[in-house]
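User: Sequence in, structure out. Go.
Assistant: Echoing your sequence, followed by the structure tokens.
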Amino acid sequence: MAPMSSDNRYDVIVVGIGAMGSSACHHLASRGVRVLGLEQFDIPHALGSSHGYSRMIRMAYYEHPDYVPLLRRAYELWRELEKASGQDLLFEVGGVYMGPPEGHVVAGAIEAARRHGLLYDVLSHADLKKCFPQFHLPDHFTGVFEHRAGFLLPEKVVAAQAELALRGGADLRGREPVLGWDASQSGVTVRTSKGEYRAERLVFCGGAWAGKLVKDLGVELVVTRQTLGWFWPRQPDLFETPRFPVWGIEVADGSLAYGFPMLQDNPGLKVARHGRGAVTDPDHVSRQITPEDEAEVRAILDRHLPDGAGPLLSMRVCLYTNSPDGHFIIDSHPEHKSVTLACGFSGHGFKFASVVGEVLADLALEGQTKLPAQFLGLERFRVAPRTEGRAGAREDGL
């Protein structure tokens, strides 16, 4: 191993340069911090949770209203990122959420929208049939239309955040996996396949590898294999913007069927199931698509979007890192205050990446943040949960 030199010393080291890590590097670099970003794969890459051409963003957050203030800030930061990068990254095409009126999707979205004064419309079954005839739904289903919902372009987002971090002075290194780390009162040391680095602070954004990188959290993180499919519709014009929004449909088993309008950058109609898939090891996950994978996704089209049920074009595998309650974990390490972590995003975190990076920069540099992220701390797993004022125990999200 090469001897330590001043070139191996940083203010902050960030491990994992996906959505959250690239955002953290961007925010840290913009504050003049000497930051090192380490990624075991390419920057960006398609082996974790930050790919697939589109990620939904919505503010009427049915999972819990506590997320909405963070989302307000996220929207502001996404627009700032677009301006700084000169790219279009966020598209507010509207979103419709459908299910039983008393179900957690419709009722939860209405609760969040009312509590925070968001612009939304309640849609009866007749309204849904008139406004969105593409969907075939049970007679008792109603809906909520959120005007500011839409989608982000994940690969372009990670690339833009990483490039702005680099231009701001960050040292980002791909294909350099972390082999171990130590933290003490004098700082942190990180050992990789290529060297050893020291810093005052360490930030973990390891995604599906978080449980392997940080093993002493006292919280189990479960990695699951998820699949996404793209199909060529029988009537493509029905599924293009502005006629077709982002959407989600509550399923009786607690999962969510969801999808996006067709995009120019990638052919086909994207559809997926949101719910915990098969438990897997991120280092040994099968990325080979099976007939069962296709059947699961195609069943959504057959049931709810028959005009979209054309030939399969492509499928992708991504990974969820599920926390015990399905909500994010953003906090300092319980044993090492110089170590900050963001993990357990449970399949609904990407839309928050812009603000999570800001929170992580605050925590790494100040040990606290003024942003309302305290409800996502580790303390909730050590005390009796409250039914109001903090995120509850729903496992699903998008």
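User: And one key feature?
Assistant: Confidence is low (pLDDT under 50) at residues 1-5, 385-397.
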